[in-house]
Design brief:
Blueprint: E1 4-8, H1 12-24, E2 28-32, H2 35-44, E3 49-53, H3 61-70, E4 79-83, H4 88-96, E5 101-104, H5 109-123, E6 131-134, E7 137-140, E8 145-148, E9 151-153, H6 157-168, E10 173-175, H7 176-184, H8 193-206, E11 215-218, E12 222-225
Parallel strand pairs: 1-2, 1-3, 3-4, 4-5
Antiparallel strand pairs: 6-7, 7-8, 8-9, 10-12, 11-12
Helix pairs in contact: 6-7, 6-8
The structure holds calcium ion.
Amino acid sequence: MSPRILFVEDEPAIREMVEMALTRAGYEVTSAQDTRTAMIRISDHYPDLILLDWMLPGTSGLDLARQIRKDKQTRSIPIIMLTARGAEPDVILGLESGADDYITKPFSPRELVARIKALLRRSAPHSEDEVIEHHGLKLNTGSQRITAGDTEIKVGPTEYRLMLFFMTHPERVYTRAQLLDHVWGQTTYVEERTVDVHIRRLRKALEPFGLAGFIETVRGSGYRYHPHPLT
Ligand code: CA
């Protein structure tokens, strides 16, 4: 079955161009011109990925991303944000709102398809069930859930992949470029600061369980996962 992509964009010309490119690439595409319609489309049939324009009439793409992340049913749907703004604070804000990646307008259909492919690949479920446990922190590759004790730690798809990588590669320092390579799969379009944003989100999710310290910043190098008994 071809992956289903929801494209939320108010400009008809861009909608048409993207719809055509994605259909040609073998995806099933539905579109929405505003966030209200997008919510209806999402509840009709959960998409495998959402392509979300930042600038929309009424509620912005940013708000929609937050809404999608808040809802238990839609939380794990990967989101790529489309933005005409290149300014760093905006990009960071987009990623912090819950987007997994962003792409700056204008973009080529080829680049867009490559990014979609990469995100779908890293969000795809792991084939065999495996439970990894470090000092009460558990990751189940079958259910794709991370738990501390009996409580689920809720994270987005990219944070999950990051956590999976850390838990299977403990005690080693990885640079941002290496993390991009291993977790994002391809580094061509993603900038290194993206890693910091997702690390920050991951730590925030781990914080209430006293586990944020499992991910250490190694100054001048990168990050290291260092699980240790909690005191
Ligand atoms: Ca727009």
